[in-house]
Design brief:
six-stranded mixed beta sheet
Length: 838
């Protein structure tokens, strides 16, 4: 600090400018003209250009007083700040300050976020008008022209609900009347907590007007009584108490933080975020994040809501940072997957809880600036929803994307892989792999010039030849060739390959290598070609997880509410699934096997996300060619190799290694299971997940990913079905589905139906089940299931309708089953059916 300068000389100058500004409250067009002249003179004097143009490129049609102050209370050199202030002061008839003004104890704004309103038309213009009303009432209160704070509190509280207003409003009030209003930027808040004992909870959110005025009084009282510079001195002390008060700087320089943000799994919520000008995170079951006083409290709540399988440390950190550490003016980069950037933006509001967004309810407003095309970065991002950037090199690279425009990469490559030799799809994501530059004879592979030109950091796409014949993923060159190998990092798989036929139909690829026979290992793509493929990849739901947008969260509590199963039984079932990865739900018809299987899949996934669930039903004609791969006839009478449903689903799961996928097989014992699975019978075993083997038809090296779970359903009451052999049984866990008549949930269902006839019928079925269980030729696996007596509209049925429905169930569902059970004792079957009818 220059001790020859008058300390806090800015206070009088800022106060005089505020008085001059107030005269334009009702003539803002005149103010805009004067400001335009001031900025023109400033440009001529210093070369510094400040345009009265909003982020959308349209000129300001209105302006508030705090935005005027923001133009010189931002990251500028001391000389430019003085020049800007002088230009505005001169235009408004306030005597300039020359070069004598200091800026001790003044907080400044992020250069990207110096205005206090969105558009003049926002909220029909009331936002800008309210800021003027707040400005006027603040000056009146500070100067003693108003006996009470009613008007100030009204306009202040209204401003807190406006776009872009948060802690910055306290900075603005401090600028215009530093003798009365306290600045609550980050440094001051920390100082108030550490030195004045203000509870942290009171400074978690921007305080309401009455609380804010209390903090103003507290700050004034912290200095000598009657000191008009009490609050500027406090602000300077806060800066001095921060990171060492290094050098001669006297400005509280709150540099905005930078964040990486995943807009939903796989960027599934990105288009909605862009259109609404917001960002959001999940953990909906926590309710409003403002209710939590610490990160530990959040972690405990997350464990309670989502289970204690992990410490939830990163989840709690993301929630805490989003709610409490992220600030208005911070920079946010929207990402997709682990290497792709979609946009950047400036945080424009405090956090708010939106119950209308069930998947991502915790939200903030953001001014987004999207890239023309998604851009692949050389570094790999953490797989987290929200990450504060501490990597200087990455932060610099990301800023460069937007400061220097977004040209296509200098080199983008297409790597052609033969899955008969090596499968890119099965290579682990996030790992560095190498590719031999020479064949077995020591000769360079085709396209040597491309291998020599590829540089570290260049992005590439991978194309797999027959039988896939499509782009399946990509990554970046990790290390240039050394004459023997080239190293690359795989960053993503596509959920489904982009087929060659589809690529050849893209106009931008009309003259590309995709129109050739692709004989070679590495090809160069132009920037336009790369952008065309990248755009189609995005449309196809590429890089990143694929939670269906708006998928309803689903957990243990939801399953227990839907299914008649106890918490203990559910915990045992999920533990079995986690250990074996393959489970068969076995039981007689009517025990709810299929109903439970789908809900168990949702529970494992965490949402009703059908993009991660596949259902097939086995039958006697079901074969390996349907399930894994096989030759299928074409229209021209030839045959082609096609993937089966399980093979395709495995590829989708492998593309999302951090997500859960569930494959459901109904009537699993109706087919010859060993024949259907073939060599995959070994690969599905928990201990062999990820281990490759060679497929019979294609010769492809294939594996079953560890994030895929198989749930089969097996009818134990059908004598015509084949028994499963031991080799297959060893690879599955078996969970017996019991009739739920004795469960608390089913008892509550019956009671809620308020039907005496239903209650009597349930009692008779229980007695029948005891008879079946005691029969040596049948046993417990043949008991009658509860689902025959479940329907959603029971409350709408009258007694006669209930009687008719129950009679139909007995006559057409249960009686034929009893006849099958006692096929050699028809009279007994008829007697048991008659007892059911009462």
């Amino acid at each position: 600090m220059d001790q020859q300068e008058p300390i806090f000389s800015w206070v009088d100058n800022y106060t005089k400018l505020a008085d001059a500004l107030l005269a334009y409250k009702d003539d803002r067009q005149a103010l805009l003209r004067k400001l335009s002249d001031a900025y023109a003179a400033l440009k001529e004097q210093t070369g510094l250009e400040y345009k009265l143009v909003h982020v959308d490129g349209n000129p300001f049609e209105d302006i508030d007083p705090f935005t005027v102050y923001g133009s010189f209370n931002r990251h500028l050199t001391r000389g430019n700040r003085i020049a800007t202030f002088n230009a505005i002061a001169s235009a408004l008839g306030v005597e300039g300050t020359g070069d004598a003004m200091d800026f001790a104890g003044i907080p400044v704004l992020n250069n990207r976020r110096v205005w206090f309103f969105h558009k003049p038309t926002t909220n029909e213009g009331r936002d800008v008008q309210n800021l003027w009303d707040l400005f006027e009432s603040a000056l009146a209160l500070a100067d003693g022209k108003e006996a009470d704070a009613t008007a100030f509190e009204q306009h202040y509280d209204a401003a807190l609900k406006q776009w872009g207003i948060s802690w910055n409003i306290t900075m603005a009030l401090y600028w215009v009347r530093p003798n009365r209003f306290i600045n609550l930027d980050g440094l001051n808040r920390e100082y108030l907590k550490a030195k004045l004992g203000v509870p942290a909870k009171e400074l978690t959110h921007v305080p309401a007007a009455s609380d804010y005025l209390h903090l103003c009084d507290l700050g004034i009282q912290s200095e000598a009584e009657g000191d008009p510079l009490a609050l500027p001195k406090l602000s300077l002390k806060a800066w001095q108490a921060s990171e060492g008060a290094k050098g001669e700087a006297t400005v509280i320089d709150s540099e905005p933080a930078s964040w990486l943000y995943a807009p939903g799994n796989g960027a599934s919520h990105w288009e909605a975020d862009l259109q609404s000008g917001t960002m959001g995170i999940g953990w909906a079951e926590l309710g409003d994040l403002a209710d939590y006083a610490s990160q530990d409290e959040l972690a405990a709540a997350i464990a309670g809501a989502y289970g204690e399988a992990s410490s939830h440390k990163h989840d709690a950190l993301a929630c805490w940072q989003f709610q409490n550490e992220m600030q208005v003016g911070d920079i946010v980069y929207a990402k997709q997957g682990t290497t792709t950037i979609l946009a950047h933006g400036v945080v424009a509001s405090e956090p708010f809880y939106d119950e209308g967004e069930p998947a991502l309810p915790h939200r903030r407003e953001v001014e987004w600036e999207p890239l023309p095309e998604p851009r692949v970065c050389s570094a790999k991002f953490a797989q987290k929803t929200l990450t504060r950037l501490t990597n200087g090199a990455l932060d610099k690279e990301l800023k460069g994307l937007f400061e220097n425009g977004c040209p296509s990469p200098k080199h983008v490559w297409l790597f052609v892989c033969n899955p008969h030799i090596w499968s890119f799809a099965n290579a682990p994501v996030g790992k560095v792999h190498f590719y031999d530059l020479k064949n077995e004879k020591g000769n360079w592979r085709a396209k040597r010039s491309c291998f020599l030109a590829a540089k570290a950091g260049d992005p590439f796409l991978c194309y797999e030849s027959s039988p896939v014949q499509g782009v399946i993923g990509g990554g970046v060159i990790a290390q240039e060739q050394d004459g023997e190998v080239i190293r690359f990092r795989k960053d993503f798989n596509l959920a489904e390959p982009l087929a060659l036929d589809e690529l050849r139909g893209i106009p931008e690829l009309a003259s590309s290598v995709f129109q050739t026979n692709l004989q070679g290992s590495l090809f160069e793509l132009t920037g336009d070609e790369y952008s065309a493929v990248a755009g189609r990849m995005k449309a196809a739901g590429g890089d990143g997880p694929t939670l269906t947008e708006g998928a309803e969260p689903y957990g243990d509590a939801d399953l227990l509410a839907d299914v008649f199963i106890s918490p203990e039984r559910l915990a045992a079932l999920k533990a079995l699934v986690g250990r074996k990865k393959n489970v068969i739900l076995q039981g007689a018809p009517g025990t709810g096997k299929t109903f439970l299987a789908r809900r168990l899949a949702w529970d494992l996934i965490g949402a009703k996300d059908e993009s991660k669930v596949e259902l097939v039903q086995f039958h006697q004609s079901y074969a390996y060619e349907d399930f894994v791969q096989g030759l299928r006839p074409t229209r021209d009478g030839a045959f082609e190799l096609r993937e089966g449903v399980f093979h395709s689903f495995c590829r989708r799961a492998a593309a999302r290694p951090d997500e859960t996928f569930v494959f459901l097989i109904d009537e699993i014992n109706r087919a010859n299971v060993s024949k259907v699975f073939g060599e995959l019978l070994m690969l599905i075993e928990a201990g062999h997940r990820g281990d490759p083997c060679t497929l019979a038809y294609s010769g492809e090296r294939f594996s079953v990913p560890g994030n895929l779970y198989i749930i089969g359903m097996m009818n134990t009451a059908d004598r015509s079905l084949a028994l499963m052999d031991y080799a297959l049984r060893r690879r599955f866990g078996f969970f017996r589905m019991e009739p739920a008549f004795e469960s608390d949930g089913f008892g509550a269902y019956v009671a809620g139906c308020q039907s005496e006839e239903l209650a009597r019928m349930v009692g008779r079925v229980r007695a029948l089940n005891a008879t079946i269980a005691a029969d040596a030729s049948l046993g417990e696996g043949f008991r009658i299931g509860h689902s025959y007596f479940c329907r959603d509209d029971m409350g709408d049925l009258g007694p006669d309708e209930v009687h008719e429905w129950l009679g139909s169930v007995v006559d057409y569902d249960i009686a034929p089953q009893l006849e099958e059970y006692w096929f050699d004792e028809p009279e007994r079957a008829a007697d048991e059916a008659a007892r059911l009818r009462g």
